[in-house]
Design a protein that fits this description.
Elements lengths: L23 H20 L3 E2 L5 E3 L19 E3 L5 E4 L4 H10 L8 E10 L11 E10 L4 H17 L7 E7 H10 L8 H11 L2 H13 L2 E3 L5 E3 L5 H12 L8 H19 L7 E3 L13 E12 L5 E12 L5 H4 L5 E7 H11 L11 E3 L6 H16 L4 E3 L7 H11 L3 E4 L2 H6 L1 E6 H10 L3 H6 L4 E5 L3 H21 L1
Parallel strand pairs: 1-5, 7-10, 14-15, 14-16
Antiparallel strand pairs: 2-4, 3-4, 5-6, 6-13, 7-11, 8-9, 11-12, 12-13, 16-17, 17-18
Helix pairs in contact: 1-3, 3-8, 4-8, 5-6
Length: 496
C-alpha cells in the first residue's frame, strides 16, 4: 500500500485521569452558588483579589523532594530561567505571596476573597479530583481572635444563604495551640519532629472517615484500606497514642502545657464572642477533633460540616461531612517578610458543596431556558439578513436568542433542535408572512403542554394560544409577554 493510500492515524480522545469536563448545567449551578457566597462575603466587607494559577514552587511552602522534578503533591514545570513553577495547591499560599509583595501598598487589615481552581498531583479516586474549585476569604493583619470568630460567623451565614437550614450544618472550632500543647507533652515538640507532627495531624484529620480505631492505626504502624493499599502511620508509641486518644475522647484530659492553656483561653473567647452575636452551639461549636491537615495553621482552626445523611455509592447512609475549613496562619506571610504578620481565613470546597446542595434540592432547580430560536425559511441573503435582524432585536432587548445555523431546508429539524435546546419560543417567517410584514411566534412550552393535555375544542379555546401572528414591529413585546407568562406558570407549578 502506498503512503497516499494509508489511512491517517486517528487520535484517541481521552480525558486526563482525575479531571472532569463540566456541563452547562454544572456551570450555571456553580455560578448561582458562587453568587450567593460572594454576596455574604461582600456584606462582611471583603473585596475580591485574583492571583495566577502558577506560583514559584518555593512560594507554595512545599518541601521539595530529592528528585529532578518537584512534583510531590503539585504539578510543576521548569521555566526558561531554570526556576521551578507549580500550579497552585490552594489559594492561601498565593495570597501570602501577594500580601508580602505588595505590603507597602495594601491597607491592613486586608480583607479579601477569591474563587478559583487549585490543583493536586495526587492519586485520583471516586469523588477525588486533581483540579477543583475553592472559594476563600481571608483577613490579613488582624491579630485578635475576634477575626477568627467573625470567620466562623460568616461561614454560618454563608451556609444559610445557600439554603442549608440550622440543624443541617455546624461550624466546628478548635485551636492548633491546644493540640500542639498535647504534642509537646508527649515529646513531639521542636523542629526535629515537624514531619511526625504533620503525620499525627493528618491521622486525626481522618477521625470522621475512619473512626477512633482507624486513627489509632494511623497514629501507630499504619492502616490498610479495603483495596489493600497501605498508609504508613506516624509511628507513635502505645503511651503516646493513648494520650492523643484521651485528648480526643476524654473531656477531663488536661496536659501540663502553657501552650495548651493559651489555646483553651482563646477558644473560650471565641465562644463568648459568637454567643454574644447570637450564634449558639447548634451553629458554631467548640470541638477538639478539628485539627486540619495543613502544617501552617498556628491558632484557631475551623470546619464547616454538613450533618445530614446522604446515600453513598455503596447505598449506605453516611453523614455528608466537611465542605470547607480554615484557620489562623500567622507564619505564612512572615516567611516572605521576616516579621510577624497575623492572618486568618476560610476556604469552601465549591464542587463538594455543590453536590451537597443538589442533594438538598437547593441548587439547579431553576431550569436555564434555552434561547428563543429564530427559524430560517429561506436561504437567500436578503431573508437571512432579516432573520439576523430579528435575532439582534431580541438580544438588544436582553432576551437570549439565536438564529438557526444548521441545514435550514428541513424545517422539522429546526423544531427538533429547538426542543433539544429547551427553547421557549420559535420565531417563524416564510414568504407569505414576509409579504404581510408579520411573524409567527410559536410558544413551544405551551404547545408541548397542549399537545399532551387537551382533548376537546372547548378546552383548546380556553387555553393560552400556543401560536400567534404579530406585526414585525411587535416581535420583541410579544416575546416578552410570552416569556413572562411562562415564568408565571413555572412559579405556580413550584407553589403547588
Amino acid at each position: 500500500m502506498s503512503d497516499k493510500q494509508k489511512k491517517p492515524l486517528k487520535l484517541k480522545a481521552r480525558l486526563p485521569r482525575g479531571f472532569v469536563d463540566r456541563s452547562a448545567a454544572d456551570i450555571h449551578a456553580t455560578n448561582e452558588m458562587i453568587g450567593k457566597i460572594r454576596e455574604v462575603y461582600e456584606r462582611y466587607g471583603f473585596d475580591p483579589v485574583e492571583t495566577p494559577l502558577f506560583e514559584y514552587t518555593d512560594a507554595l511552602g512545599k518541601f521539595l523532594p530529592d528528585s529532578d522534578r518537584p512534583n510531590e503533591g503539585v504539578f510543576s514545570l521548569q521555566d526558561d530561567d531554570d526556576q521551578w513553577m507549580s500550579l497552585r495547591y490552594d489559594l492561601t499560599a498565593p495570597l501570602a505571596r501577594h500580601v508580602a509583595e505588595n505590603f507597602n501598598e495594601i491597607q491592613l487589615p486586608f480583607r479579601t476573597y477569591r474563587a478559583g481552581y487549585v490543583f493536586r498531583n495526587e492519586k485520583p479516586g471516586p469523588g477525588r479530583f486533581r483540579q477543583f474549585m475553592q472559594f476563600d476569604a481571608d483577613t490579613v493583619g488582624a491579630p485578635g481572635v475576634q477575626a477568627d470568630a467573625e470567620m466562623c460567623m460568616m461561614m454560618a451565614d454563608t451556609m444559610e444563604a445557600l439554603g442549608i437550614q440550622r440543624g443541617d450544618y455546624v461550624i466546628r472550632v478548635n485551636n492548633r495551640k491546644v493540640f500542639d500543647g498535647v504534642l509537646d507533652a508527649i515529646g513531639l515538640g521542636g523542629d526535629d519532629n515537624a514531619g511526625r507532627r504533620l503525620n499525627v495531624l493528618r491521622a486525626i484529620d481522618k477521625l470522621d472517615k475512619f473512626g477512633i480505631d482507624g486513627v489509632r492505626l494511623l497514629l501507630g504502624p499504619g492502616r490498610k484500606d479495603e483495596s489493600g493499599d497501605f498508609t504508613k502511620g506516624a509511628g507513635l508509641s502505645e503511651n503516646q497514642i493513648a494520650q492523643v486518644v484521651a485528648y480526643l475522647t476524654d473531656d477531663s484530659f488536661h496536659p501540663a502545657s502553657d501552650l495548651y492553656d493559651q489555646g483553651q483561653a482563646e477558644l473560650m473567647q471565641i465562644e463568648a464572642l459568637v454567643t454574644a452575636a447570637g450564634y449558639a452551639a447548634d451553629r458554631i461549636k467548640i470541638d477538639p477533633s478539628v485539627i486540619r491537615g495543613l502544617e501552617y495553621y498556628t491558632g484557631p482552626v475551623f470546619e464547616a460540616e454538613l450533618t445530614f445523611d446522604v446515600t453513598n455509592e455503596k447505598g449506605e447512609k453516611v453523614v455528608f461531612g466537611s465542605v470547607g475549613g480554615g484557620g489562623r496562619y500567622d507564619g505564612l506571610v512572615s516567611r516572605f517578610m521576616g516579621q510577624p504578620v497575623p492572618a486568618t481565613g476560610f476556604s469552601i470546597g465549591v464542587s463538594r458543596l455543590m453536590t451537597a446542595l443538589k442533594n438538598l434540592g437547593k441548587l439547579g432547580q431553576d431550569e436555564v431556558l434555552g434561547p428563543v430560536l429564530v427559524t430560517v425559511m429561506d436561504g437567500d441573503v436578503e431573508s437571512m439578513g432579516r432573520y439576523q435582524r430579528f435575532t439582534q432585536q431580541l438580544r438588544a432587548a436582553g432576551i437570549r436568542a439565536e438564529m438557526y445555523q444548521g441545514n435550514w431546508k428541513k424545517f422539522g429539524n429546526q423544531l427538533k433542535y429547538a426542543d433539544r435546546r429547551g427553547s421557549p419560543i420559535a420565531i417563524i417567517q416564510g414568504g407569505d408572512e414576509r409579504a404581510e410584514g408579520v411573524v409567527q411566534i410559536k410558544d413551544l412550552i405551551e404547545g408541548k403542554r397542549l399537545s399532551g393535555e387537551i382533548e376537546d375544542n372547548a378546552t383548546w379555546r380556553e387555553a393560552r394560544v400556543a401560536q400567534e401572528v404579530v406585526p414585525e414591529a411587535d416581535l420583541v413585546a410579544k416575546v416578552r409577554e410570552i416569556l413572562a407568562a411562562q415564568a408565571e406558570d413555572r412559579r405556580r407549578a413550584k407553589d403547588v
